[in-house]
Write a structure and sequence with these properties.
Length: 104
């Protein structure tokens, strides 16, 4: 899992080939902190199928504003640079894995 900033978003997400999951989070957000180990596991297990990035909305607020994020954690799924889906709130590992696999 890779932490990215607003300035890296285009290169890491919008210009990437294949699936990219982007977690918009903040340090003070309890559910966000609960999601981090889940995404770490998914990254280790599915790293060849999906790239996982995280954006701290306090440090990089521009992209979150551009995407209209009102609640965190918000997990966006991009395919070949196009946003294809979003999940808001804390989701289980099995829910996220199924979601990723359904969009491959």
């Amino acid at each position: 899992m890779k932490a990215i900033t607003d300035s890296e978003f285009d290169a890491e997400v919008l210009k990437a080939k294949g699936l990219v999951l982007v977690d918009f989070w903040a340090e003070w957000c309890g559910p966000c902190r609960q999601l981090i180990p889940i995404l770490d596991e998914i990254s280790k297990e599915m790293g060849d199928k999906v790239k996982i990035c995280k954006v701290n909305v306090d440090e990089s607020p521009d992209k979150a504003a551009d995407l209209g994020i009102r609640s965190i954690p918000s997990v966006f799924l991009f395919k070949d640079g196009k946003q294809i889906d979003v999940k808001v709130g804390l989701n289980s590992k099995s829910t996220l894995v199924s979601w990723i696999e359904a969009n491959m």
